[in-house]
Amino acid sequence: MESEPTLRARPARIPGLFALAVGLALTGCGFLDSPATTLLPKSDFGQTSHRIFLQILRWDTAIFLVVQALLLVAIFRFRERDPAVAPPRQVRGSAVLEIIWTLIPAVILTFIAFPTVAAIFRTQATPPKDALRVKVIGHQWWWEFQYPDLGIVTATDLHLPVGRPVSLEIGSTDVIHSFWVPPLGGKRDAIPGTTTRIVLTADTTGEYYGQCAEFCGASHANMRHRAVVETPEAFTAWVAKQKEPGATPPDGSPAAAGLRVYLLGTCIGCHTVRGVSGGGIGPDLTHFGSRRTIAGGILPNTPENLARWVRQAPLVKPGSIMPEQKLSDAEVTALVAYLLSLR
Ligand code: CUA
Q1: In the chain, where do the E strands start and end?
Q2: Cis omega (within 30 of 0) on the bond before 141?
Protein backbone atom coordinates (compact mmCIF):
# COMPACT_ATOMS: atom_id res chain seq x y z
CA MET A 1 0.00 0.00 0.00
CA GLU A 2 3.05 2.24 0.05
CA SER A 3 2.85 3.11 -3.63
CA GLU A 4 -0.78 4.21 -3.60
CA PRO A 5 -0.25 7.80 -2.39
CA THR A 6 1.92 8.38 -5.48
CA LEU A 7 -0.92 7.27 -7.74
CA ARG A 8 -3.39 9.43 -5.87
CA ALA A 9 -1.13 12.44 -6.00
CA ARG A 10 -1.35 12.64 -9.78
CA PRO A 11 -4.99 13.04 -10.79
CA ALA A 12 -4.31 16.58 -12.01
CA ARG A 13 -2.46 15.06 -14.98
CA ILE A 14 -5.40 12.99 -16.13
CA PRO A 15 -7.46 15.79 -17.78
CA GLY A 16 -4.31 16.90 -19.61
CA LEU A 17 -3.60 13.39 -20.83
CA PHE A 18 -7.23 12.97 -21.83
CA ALA A 19 -7.15 16.21 -23.82
CA LEU A 20 -3.92 15.07 -25.51
CA ALA A 21 -5.49 11.71 -26.43
CA VAL A 22 -8.59 13.39 -27.86
CA GLY A 23 -6.41 15.85 -29.80
CA LEU A 24 -4.31 13.03 -31.26
CA ALA A 25 -7.44 11.06 -32.14
CA LEU A 26 -8.88 14.07 -33.94
CA THR A 27 -5.75 14.43 -36.06
CA GLY A 28 -6.62 10.97 -37.45
CA CYS A 29 -9.89 12.15 -38.95
CA GLY A 30 -11.52 15.35 -40.02
CA PHE A 31 -9.36 15.61 -43.11
CA LEU A 32 -12.16 14.90 -45.53
CA ASP A 33 -10.21 16.68 -48.25
CA SER A 34 -7.24 14.32 -47.80
CA PRO A 35 -6.51 12.59 -51.11
CA ALA A 36 -6.42 9.25 -49.33
CA THR A 37 -9.73 9.57 -47.51
CA THR A 38 -12.17 6.66 -47.58
CA LEU A 39 -14.89 8.79 -45.99
CA LEU A 40 -16.15 10.25 -49.29
CA PRO A 41 -16.67 7.09 -51.38
CA LYS A 42 -16.85 7.42 -55.18
CA SER A 43 -17.90 3.90 -56.20
CA ASP A 44 -20.31 1.16 -55.17
CA PHE A 45 -17.40 -0.70 -53.57
CA GLY A 46 -16.41 2.47 -51.73
CA GLN A 47 -20.02 2.93 -50.53
CA THR A 48 -20.11 -0.67 -49.29
CA SER A 49 -16.83 -0.32 -47.37
CA HIS A 50 -18.00 2.99 -45.95
CA ARG A 51 -21.36 1.56 -44.85
CA ILE A 52 -19.61 -1.33 -43.06
CA PHE A 53 -17.24 1.12 -41.41
CA LEU A 54 -20.12 3.26 -40.12
CA GLN A 55 -22.04 0.18 -38.96
CA ILE A 56 -19.04 -1.12 -36.99
CA LEU A 57 -18.35 2.39 -35.66
CA ARG A 58 -21.92 2.59 -34.30
CA TRP A 59 -21.65 -0.81 -32.61
CA ASP A 60 -18.23 0.03 -31.22
CA THR A 61 -19.47 3.34 -29.88
CA ALA A 62 -22.39 1.62 -28.13
CA ILE A 63 -20.05 -1.01 -26.66
CA PHE A 64 -17.62 1.71 -25.57
CA LEU A 65 -20.36 3.65 -23.81
CA VAL A 66 -21.70 0.56 -22.02
CA VAL A 67 -18.19 -0.46 -20.89
CA GLN A 68 -17.38 3.07 -19.70
CA ALA A 69 -20.71 3.32 -17.82
CA LEU A 70 -20.04 0.00 -16.07
CA LEU A 71 -16.52 1.13 -15.31
CA LEU A 72 -17.74 4.35 -13.72
CA VAL A 73 -20.35 2.45 -11.68
CA ALA A 74 -17.63 0.08 -10.47
CA ILE A 75 -15.25 2.92 -9.62
CA PHE A 76 -17.78 4.91 -7.59
CA ARG A 77 -20.00 2.22 -6.15
CA PHE A 78 -17.20 -0.08 -5.03
CA ARG A 79 -14.62 2.49 -4.02
CA GLU A 80 -13.01 2.07 -0.65
CA ARG A 81 -15.07 4.12 1.79
CA ASP A 82 -13.94 2.72 5.09
CA PRO A 83 -10.50 1.09 5.32
CA ALA A 84 -11.73 -0.96 8.24
CA VAL A 85 -14.34 -2.78 6.13
CA ALA A 86 -13.12 -6.03 4.58
CA PRO A 87 -12.71 -6.00 0.74
CA PRO A 88 -15.63 -7.47 -1.27
CA ARG A 89 -15.66 -11.10 -2.33
CA GLN A 90 -12.97 -11.69 -4.97
CA VAL A 91 -14.03 -13.40 -8.22
CA ARG A 92 -10.60 -14.07 -9.75
CA GLY A 93 -10.55 -17.40 -11.65
CA SER A 94 -14.31 -17.60 -12.07
CA ALA A 95 -14.98 -20.00 -14.96
CA VAL A 96 -18.41 -18.49 -15.59
CA LEU A 97 -17.01 -14.98 -15.99
CA GLU A 98 -14.17 -16.22 -18.21
CA ILE A 99 -16.66 -17.96 -20.51
CA ILE A 100 -18.96 -14.92 -20.62
CA TRP A 101 -16.26 -12.45 -21.56
CA THR A 102 -14.86 -14.81 -24.16
CA LEU A 103 -18.27 -15.40 -25.72
CA ILE A 104 -19.33 -11.73 -25.88
CA PRO A 105 -16.36 -10.62 -28.05
CA ALA A 106 -16.76 -13.75 -30.20
CA VAL A 107 -20.39 -12.81 -30.86
CA ILE A 108 -19.43 -9.19 -31.60
CA LEU A 109 -16.69 -10.30 -34.03
CA THR A 110 -19.14 -12.64 -35.75
CA PHE A 111 -21.54 -9.74 -36.27
CA ILE A 112 -18.70 -7.68 -37.75
CA ALA A 113 -17.59 -10.60 -39.95
CA PHE A 114 -20.98 -11.12 -41.64
CA PRO A 115 -21.20 -7.84 -43.63
CA THR A 116 -17.43 -7.75 -44.16
CA VAL A 117 -17.11 -11.24 -45.64
CA ALA A 118 -20.28 -10.71 -47.71
CA ALA A 119 -18.77 -7.51 -49.19
CA ILE A 120 -15.47 -9.24 -49.95
CA PHE A 121 -17.29 -11.95 -51.91
CA ARG A 122 -19.60 -9.52 -53.66
CA THR A 123 -16.80 -7.23 -54.85
CA GLN A 124 -14.78 -10.07 -56.37
CA ALA A 125 -17.68 -12.01 -57.85
CA THR A 126 -17.91 -12.81 -61.56
CA PRO A 127 -18.22 -9.43 -63.26
CA PRO A 128 -21.27 -8.55 -65.37
CA LYS A 129 -20.93 -9.15 -69.13
CA ASP A 130 -20.60 -5.48 -70.04
CA ALA A 131 -17.82 -4.91 -67.51
CA LEU A 132 -14.63 -3.23 -68.70
CA ARG A 133 -11.68 -5.57 -68.07
CA VAL A 134 -8.44 -4.06 -66.84
CA LYS A 135 -5.37 -6.08 -65.95
CA VAL A 136 -3.64 -4.36 -63.05
CA ILE A 137 -0.02 -5.46 -62.75
CA GLY A 138 2.24 -4.49 -59.87
CA HIS A 139 5.93 -3.90 -60.56
CA GLN A 140 8.66 -2.63 -58.24
CA TRP A 141 7.58 0.26 -58.07
CA TRP A 142 4.84 1.22 -60.51
CA TRP A 143 1.50 -0.02 -61.73
CA GLU A 144 0.83 -1.20 -65.27
CA PHE A 145 -2.72 -1.13 -66.63
CA GLN A 146 -3.61 -3.32 -69.62
CA TYR A 147 -7.03 -3.14 -71.31
CA PRO A 148 -7.02 -6.53 -73.10
CA ASP A 149 -10.31 -5.95 -74.95
CA LEU A 150 -9.20 -2.53 -76.18
CA GLY A 151 -5.56 -3.30 -77.00
CA ILE A 152 -4.25 -0.54 -74.71
CA VAL A 153 -1.35 -0.59 -72.25
CA THR A 154 -0.56 2.27 -69.92
CA ALA A 155 0.99 2.95 -66.53
CA THR A 156 0.20 4.87 -63.34
CA ASP A 157 -2.95 6.61 -64.71
CA LEU A 158 -5.89 4.20 -64.60
CA HIS A 159 -8.64 5.62 -66.81
CA LEU A 160 -12.16 4.40 -66.02
CA PRO A 161 -15.54 5.39 -67.46
CA VAL A 162 -18.04 6.57 -64.85
CA GLY A 163 -21.12 4.39 -64.33
CA ARG A 164 -19.78 1.28 -66.06
CA PRO A 165 -18.80 -1.84 -64.07
CA VAL A 166 -15.07 -2.52 -64.15
CA SER A 167 -13.31 -5.79 -63.46
CA LEU A 168 -9.81 -5.12 -62.18
CA GLU A 169 -7.78 -8.33 -62.54
CA ILE A 170 -4.86 -7.82 -60.24
CA GLY A 171 -1.47 -9.53 -60.42
CA SER A 172 2.24 -8.88 -59.95
CA THR A 173 5.48 -9.61 -61.78
CA ASP A 174 7.76 -9.61 -58.74
CA VAL A 175 6.65 -9.32 -55.10
CA ILE A 176 3.32 -8.86 -53.33
CA HIS A 177 1.85 -5.38 -53.77
CA SER A 178 -1.61 -4.16 -52.86
CA PHE A 179 -3.81 -2.14 -55.17
CA TRP A 180 -5.69 0.61 -53.37
CA VAL A 181 -7.54 3.72 -54.51
CA PRO A 182 -9.11 4.88 -51.21
CA PRO A 183 -12.22 6.65 -52.59
CA LEU A 184 -13.00 3.69 -54.88
CA GLY A 185 -13.02 1.10 -52.08
CA GLY A 186 -10.94 -1.48 -50.29
CA LYS A 187 -7.47 -2.67 -51.14
CA ARG A 188 -6.64 -6.00 -52.70
CA ASP A 189 -3.31 -7.81 -52.85
CA ALA A 190 -1.39 -8.17 -56.11
CA ILE A 191 0.24 -11.58 -55.80
CA PRO A 192 2.74 -13.08 -58.31
CA GLY A 193 1.38 -16.20 -60.00
CA THR A 194 -2.27 -15.60 -59.19
CA THR A 195 -5.05 -13.14 -60.01
CA THR A 196 -7.20 -11.35 -57.50
CA ARG A 197 -10.16 -9.24 -58.54
CA ILE A 198 -12.09 -6.12 -57.69
CA VAL A 199 -15.41 -5.49 -59.41
CA LEU A 200 -16.60 -1.93 -58.96
CA THR A 201 -18.53 0.84 -60.65
CA ALA A 202 -17.21 4.36 -60.17
CA ASP A 203 -20.08 6.81 -59.63
CA THR A 204 -18.40 10.25 -59.72
CA THR A 205 -15.96 11.68 -62.23
CA GLY A 206 -12.66 12.95 -60.87
CA GLU A 207 -9.03 12.05 -60.24
CA TYR A 208 -8.44 9.82 -57.27
CA TYR A 209 -5.14 9.19 -55.58
CA GLY A 210 -3.93 5.62 -55.20
CA GLN A 211 -1.12 4.12 -53.16
CA CYS A 212 0.41 0.65 -53.00
CA ALA A 213 -0.72 -0.70 -49.64
CA GLU A 214 1.62 -3.63 -49.05
CA PHE A 215 5.27 -3.16 -48.18
CA CYS A 216 7.10 -4.19 -51.35
CA GLY A 217 10.66 -2.91 -51.01
CA ALA A 218 12.72 0.28 -50.97
CA SER A 219 10.27 2.49 -52.85
CA HIS A 220 6.99 1.06 -51.59
CA ALA A 221 5.94 4.52 -50.42
CA ASN A 222 6.79 5.87 -53.90
CA MET A 223 4.51 3.40 -55.66
CA ARG A 224 1.48 5.53 -56.43
CA HIS A 225 -1.16 5.79 -59.08
CA ARG A 226 -4.19 7.79 -60.15
CA ALA A 227 -7.65 6.63 -61.03
CA VAL A 228 -9.02 9.02 -63.64
CA VAL A 229 -12.78 8.52 -63.68
CA GLU A 230 -14.26 10.29 -66.70
CA THR A 231 -17.47 10.54 -68.69
CA PRO A 232 -18.07 7.75 -71.24
CA GLU A 233 -17.38 10.26 -74.06
CA ALA A 234 -14.06 11.37 -72.56
CA PHE A 235 -13.11 7.76 -71.94
CA THR A 236 -13.91 6.79 -75.56
CA ALA A 237 -11.82 9.72 -76.80
CA TRP A 238 -8.95 8.68 -74.52
CA VAL A 239 -9.17 5.08 -75.82
CA ALA A 240 -9.10 6.25 -79.45
CA LYS A 241 -6.00 8.35 -78.74
CA GLN A 242 -4.24 5.55 -76.86
CA LYS A 243 -4.75 3.15 -79.78
CA GLU A 244 -2.65 5.32 -82.06
CA PRO A 245 1.05 4.50 -82.45
CA GLY A 246 3.63 6.79 -80.87
CA ALA A 247 3.78 10.27 -82.43
CA THR A 248 6.48 10.84 -85.06
CA PRO A 249 8.20 14.16 -84.42
CA PRO A 250 8.59 16.52 -87.40
CA ASP A 251 12.05 16.54 -89.03
CA GLY A 252 14.47 19.01 -87.49
CA SER A 253 12.44 19.49 -84.29
CA PRO A 254 14.00 19.04 -80.82
CA ALA A 255 11.76 16.00 -80.39
CA ALA A 256 13.23 14.46 -83.57
CA ALA A 257 16.70 14.84 -82.03
CA GLY A 258 15.28 13.23 -78.89
CA LEU A 259 13.98 10.27 -80.88
CA ARG A 260 17.56 9.66 -82.09
CA VAL A 261 18.82 9.74 -78.47
CA TYR A 262 16.02 7.33 -77.54
CA LEU A 263 16.92 4.91 -80.34
CA LEU A 264 20.68 4.99 -79.78
CA GLY A 265 20.58 4.78 -75.98
CA THR A 266 19.56 2.03 -73.60
CA CYS A 267 15.88 3.13 -73.42
CA ILE A 268 14.71 0.78 -76.20
CA GLY A 269 15.90 -2.26 -74.25
CA CYS A 270 13.26 -1.75 -71.57
CA HIS A 271 10.51 0.48 -72.97
CA THR A 272 7.87 0.15 -75.64
CA VAL A 273 6.88 3.02 -77.89
CA ARG A 274 4.53 1.34 -80.35
CA GLY A 275 6.01 1.56 -83.83
CA VAL A 276 9.45 2.49 -82.45
CA SER A 277 10.67 0.06 -79.77
CA GLY A 278 9.43 -3.06 -78.03
CA GLY A 279 11.08 -3.35 -74.59
CA GLY A 280 8.97 -5.02 -71.94
CA ILE A 281 10.58 -4.19 -68.60
CA GLY A 282 9.64 -0.58 -67.93
CA PRO A 283 6.36 1.23 -68.53
CA ASP A 284 4.95 1.50 -72.07
CA LEU A 285 5.79 5.03 -73.22
CA THR A 286 3.66 5.21 -76.38
CA HIS A 287 1.50 7.98 -74.89
CA PHE A 288 3.79 9.01 -72.07
CA GLY A 289 3.24 12.74 -72.68
CA SER A 290 -0.45 12.42 -71.84
CA ARG A 291 0.23 11.11 -68.34
CA ARG A 292 -0.13 13.34 -65.34
CA THR A 293 2.81 12.05 -63.35
CA ILE A 294 6.14 10.27 -63.72
CA ALA A 295 8.36 8.05 -61.59
CA GLY A 296 5.54 5.84 -60.30
CA GLY A 297 3.23 8.76 -59.69
CA ILE A 298 5.45 10.75 -57.33
CA LEU A 299 6.24 13.76 -59.55
CA PRO A 300 4.16 15.92 -61.90
CA ASN A 301 5.05 15.24 -65.53
CA THR A 302 7.04 18.44 -66.23
CA PRO A 303 10.19 18.90 -68.36
CA GLU A 304 12.28 19.70 -65.24
CA ASN A 305 11.13 16.62 -63.32
CA LEU A 306 11.52 14.43 -66.38
CA ALA A 307 15.11 15.66 -66.94
CA ARG A 308 15.96 14.79 -63.32
CA TRP A 309 14.31 11.40 -63.68
CA VAL A 310 16.01 10.54 -66.99
CA ARG A 311 19.44 11.46 -65.62
CA GLN A 312 19.38 9.67 -62.29
CA ALA A 313 16.22 7.72 -61.65
CA PRO A 314 17.51 5.93 -58.52
CA LEU A 315 18.17 9.31 -56.87
CA VAL A 316 14.53 10.27 -57.42
CA LYS A 317 13.03 6.88 -56.56
CA PRO A 318 15.40 4.78 -54.42
CA GLY A 319 15.88 1.28 -55.80
CA SER A 320 14.63 2.13 -59.29
CA ILE A 321 16.18 -0.26 -61.79
CA MET A 322 16.30 2.38 -64.51
CA PRO A 323 20.07 2.92 -64.85
CA GLU A 324 21.78 6.28 -64.71
CA GLN A 325 21.97 7.71 -68.26
CA LYS A 326 25.30 9.08 -69.43
CA LEU A 327 23.83 11.85 -71.52
CA SER A 328 24.87 15.41 -72.24
CA ASP A 329 22.59 18.28 -71.25
CA ALA A 330 21.58 18.74 -74.88
CA GLU A 331 20.75 15.04 -75.21
CA VAL A 332 18.65 15.13 -72.04
CA THR A 333 16.75 18.19 -73.29
CA ALA A 334 16.11 16.48 -76.63
CA LEU A 335 15.02 13.22 -75.01
CA VAL A 336 12.63 15.09 -72.71
CA ALA A 337 11.17 16.93 -75.73
CA TYR A 338 10.63 13.60 -77.50
CA LEU A 339 9.02 11.85 -74.50
CA LEU A 340 6.67 14.76 -73.85
CA SER A 341 5.69 14.82 -77.54
CA LEU A 342 4.30 11.29 -77.15
CA ARG A 343 0.83 12.49 -76.34
CU1 CUA B 1 4.12 -2.03 -54.19
CU2 CUA B 1 4.15 -1.46 -51.92
Answers
A1: 132-139, 142-147, 152-155, 157-161, 165-172, 177-179, 188-190, 196-201, 206-211, 224-230, 272-273, 277-278, 293-294, 299-300
A2: yes
For residues 216 and 192, the answer to whether their CB atoms sit within 8 Å is: no
SS3 226: strand
Please state, in angstroms and as integers, the Cα–Cα distance from residue 53 to each residue in 109, 111, 113, 294, following that order.
Answer: 14, 13, 12, 34
d(CA 338, CA 48): 44
Asked whether the whole model's pTM tops 0.85, one would answer no
Please name the residues in contact with 150: beta carbons below 8 A apart, sequence gap of 6 or more: 239, 242, 243
Ligand 1 atom with minimal separation from the 141 CA: 1
Residue type, 71: L
What confidence tens digit (pLDDT) does each residue in 89-147 have?
Answer: 888 888 999 999 999 999 989 988 998 899 888 888 888 889 999 999 999 999 999 99
Gap from CA of 248 to ligand 1 centroid (Å): 34
| 330 CA to centre of ligand 1 in angstroms | 35
Q: How many CB atoms lie within 10 A of CB 303?
A: 13
